[in-house]
Design brief:
The chain has helices at residues 72-80, 98-107, 142-156, 172-175; strands spanning 11-13, 18-19, 22-23, 31-33, 41-44, 49-52, 55-57, 63-66, 85-90, 111-114, 128-135, 161-166, 182-185. The protein is an alpha/beta fold and 192 residues long.
């Protein structure tokens, strides 16, 4: 593309693509450029990075399982080690604390990804990165469940990243084209 998407004013645009003097058929629907919403997080597929509040960002997500409450000391430790993004796997007894985690993390400039389906009460939080909605489903029957989970997640929160993690790698071809902003595959067994 001869332009940066950020150079376009909000509005509707259509795209025509010519390769080797052959024009490809125009897309059925135009794409829409609009201003970023407060706290919105998306994927820049051309740069292969996240776009957070309109800025391209590479995200590193150390994961934390909440078997215990995450105290202020936890957030201080992450901030001291320059961890600006964290993935939280909330244990069932701690799901009610997600809002508290967001508030505590925000104090230290940390953005959070949650390993659960979206919670409509949290979607407007400025330091929310997104949701891991599918993790290691196995078998071909799981493909439709994955599609349903992503569609359901987008209905609740269309403005943040939806992440799906799959296994086994032998089924990687089955995962191609599945919805979700980030698709990853766990590879087992791990080799030392």
């Amino acid at each position: 593309f001869p332009f940066e998407m950020s150079d376009l004013a909000p509005g509707e645009y259509s795209v025509r693509v010519t390769i080797d003097d052959r024009q490809l058929p125009p897309k059925q629907c135009p794409f829409i450029v609009r201003k970023y919403l407060r706290g919105e997080t998306k994927i820049d597929y051309l740069r292969r990075c996240a776009v957070i509040n309109g800025k391209s960002t590479l995200v590193f997500l150390p994961g934390v399982m909440t078997y215990v409450d995450l105290t202020d000391d936890f957030w201080k430790l992450f901030a001291a080690n320059e961890m600006k993004t964290v993935m939280i796997w909330p244990g069932r007894p701690h799901v009610h604390l997600l809002g508290t985690y967001l508030k505590s993390a925000e104090k230290y400039g940390i953005k959070l990804f949650f390993h659960i389906m979206p919670n409509k009460d949290l979607v407007d939080r400025s330091n929310l990165l997104g949701w891991l909605v599918v993790d290691e489903p196995t078998g071909e029957k799981q493909i439709q469940k994955t599609i349903n989970a992503v569609n359901d997640a987008r209905k609740i929160d269309p403005h943040h990243i939806i992440y799906c993690n799959h296994m086994p790698p032998q089924m990687a071809a089955n995962y191609a084209g599945l919805p979700g902003d980030i698709i990853s595959i766990d590879y087992y067994p791990l080799v030392a």
